[in-house]
């Protein structure tokens, strides 16, 4: 069965949206395999976001993502990688479709980083890489 890495980002944790995000994942029919609340080291985040190294938003992104606890979770289900990205909605929360996590719960706050509440792996290969980073041994 497919698995994906979900991060409930620090903006969502600060706003008390962990339960709402997990509720949507479970209501869709996916299964929680592992979940842990923790403040990630910048080194882990630089590795997690390696594909974005060198982009102008990279440093603000790492700073934001290490600014407080995230809820890291492994979620399982048939075609869950694309299914969770569909639940999450488009990267920019202002234009993300209503009905999605970002579209219903997110907005632009005028900050240098796009604060968009959640992360989901973008392919099965990314999911395997990210799960081994966040949950070594799983
Ligand atoms: P994730 O699910 O978090 O990976 O989002 P994504 O796959 O929709 O976006 P992507 O992997 O392209 O970028 C990772 C994260 O960097 C995004 O979720 C945003 O928080 C941030 N980001 C991406 N593109 C931009 C950008 O053009 N400007 C800014 N300021 N932030 C960005
Ligand atoms: Mg991505």
UniProtKB/TrEMBL annotation:
The principal location of this protein is: cytoplasm
What's one Pfam family here? NDK
UniProt-recorded Gene Ontology molecular function terms:
nucleoside diphosphate kinase activity
Q: What class of enzyme is it?
A: transferase
The cofactors it requires, by name, are: Mg(2+)
Reaction equation(s) it catalyzes:
a ribonucleoside 5'-diphosphate + ATP = a ribonucleoside 5'-triphosphate + ADP; a 2'-deoxyribonucleoside 5'-diphosphate + ATP = a 2'-deoxyribonucleoside 5'-triphosphate + ADP
The subcellular location is: Cytoplasm
UniProt entry keywords in alphabetical sequence: ATP-binding, Cytoplasm, Kinase, Magnesium, Metal-binding, Nucleotide metabolism, Nucleotide-binding, Phosphoprotein, Transferase
Presence of keyword Metal-binding: yes
In this chain, ATP is annotated as bound at 9, 57, 85, 91, 102, 116
Q: Which CDD domains match?
A: NDPk_I
Query: InterPro entries this protein is in?
Result: NDK-like_dom (IPR034907), NDK-like_dom_sf (IPR036850), Nucleoside_diP_kinase (IPR001564)
Every Nucleoside diphosphate kinase-like domain range: 1-138
Please list the residues that make up the active site.
119
EC number in record: 2.7.4.6
Q: How does it assemble?
A: Homotetramer.
What job does this protein perform?
Major role in the synthesis of nucleoside triphosphates other than ATP. The ATP gamma phosphate is transferred to the NDP beta phosphate via a ping-pong mechanism, using a phosphorylated active-site intermediate.
Family membership:
Belongs to the NDK family.
This chain belongs to the protein called Nucleoside diphosphate kinase
**Source species, please?**
Actinotalea lenta
Q: Which gene encodes it?
A: ndk
């Amino acid at each position: 069965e497919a698995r994906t890495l979900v991060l409930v980002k620090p903006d969502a944790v600060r706003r008390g949206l962990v339960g709402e995000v997990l509720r949507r994942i479970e209501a869709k029919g996916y299964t929680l395999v592992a979940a842990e609340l923790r403040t990630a080291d910048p080194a882990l985040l630089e590795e997690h976001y390696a594909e974005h190294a060198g982009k102008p938003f990279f440093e603000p992104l790492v700073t934001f993502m290490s600014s407080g606890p995230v809820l890291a979770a492994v979620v399982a289900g048939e075609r869950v990688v694309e299914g969770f990205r569909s639940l999450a909605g488009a990267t920019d929360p202002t234009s993300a479709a209503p009905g999605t996590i970002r579209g219903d719960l997110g907005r632009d706050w005028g900050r240098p980083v796009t604060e968009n509440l959640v992360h989901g792996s973008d392919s099965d290969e990314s999911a395997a890489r990210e799960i081994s980073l966040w949950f070594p041994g799983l």
